[in-house]
Each structure stands twice: as structure tokens, then as C-alpha cells.
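User: two proteins, same treatment. go.

Assistant:
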Amino acid sequence: MTVCTHRNLLLLPPPKARIRCRRCHLTIRRDELQRPYCPECYEADGIRQTDFEEVQEPALQQVQYRCEDCGALITVSAER
């Protein structure tokens, strides 16, 4: 195993808001939803379920970096 000093870091954007189907609990980003109904419910049962809830992100502020040399993800918590 090689030792990486993580000198070449890339700041990753914060995660986008996600929604959860109230019926099957599929969690997906809103921009990934191609139709106004849950794709999982539609595929499994043929039901066009449109009842979603917003997923609350944790209150803890975190910043993520990715090392361009080794691909490691580094999470830094910014507690106040």
C-alpha cells in the first residue's frame, strides 16, 4: 500500500436536496426524477405514486474533498 500525502485536493460541491417516496421509501435527488411519479413504485406495481417528502440533511456542516492522486474522500466537520 502506498502512502499518499493528499496534496492535490478537489473541493466537492455540497449534496443536492433529496426526496423520499412515502410508499416505498426510495430516496432520490429531485433532478434525477425523470417523471413526476416514483419510478420504483411504477415498475413494481404499475402505480404512479406522486407523494414525496423532502429528506432533511443533518444540521452538522460538513465539507468534502477528494484527493486527485489516490481518490480518497476526506470529510471535514465545521462545528460551531
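Protein 2:
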Amino acid sequence: MNTIDRIKAAADEARRRGEHPTRVFLTVDDGRKLQFELIAQDSRLGHRIEKQGVRNAVHKVAGLDVVWRSPEFKVS
């Protein structure tokens, strides 16, 4: 399962529990995997990521604000 699908699944699970997720917390490894997936998926976004870095180029994924370098993966 890739990182974007993992984020979407965690957000859907939180919504089923009645929560309203607004942020996704990504570990360093999750951030690296997400960066690779986004570069492979969209060439324009990939170019922006290469120029600005993933933290400055990507602020939202699947409608959730990204919190980089978290100690654990979670959606809240």
C-alpha cells in the first residue's frame, strides 16, 4: 500500500469513528516515500519538489494538512 492510499484509508477510518480529521502526521520514512510517489505521479509537482523541497512544495495531501517529521504516523 502506498503512502497516499494509507493516508486516505486512515482518514476514512477516522471519519467512520465520527472524527473530523484535518492533519496527517508523517514520519521521516513516510515523508521520503511520499516524496518519491509524488515525483513519480506528477512531473510538474515533481519539478517543484526538486526545486523547493518537499516540505515547502507540499502542504496538503488528500485534503489534510501535513505535519512533517512526526514520531509516529497518525491522522487527527
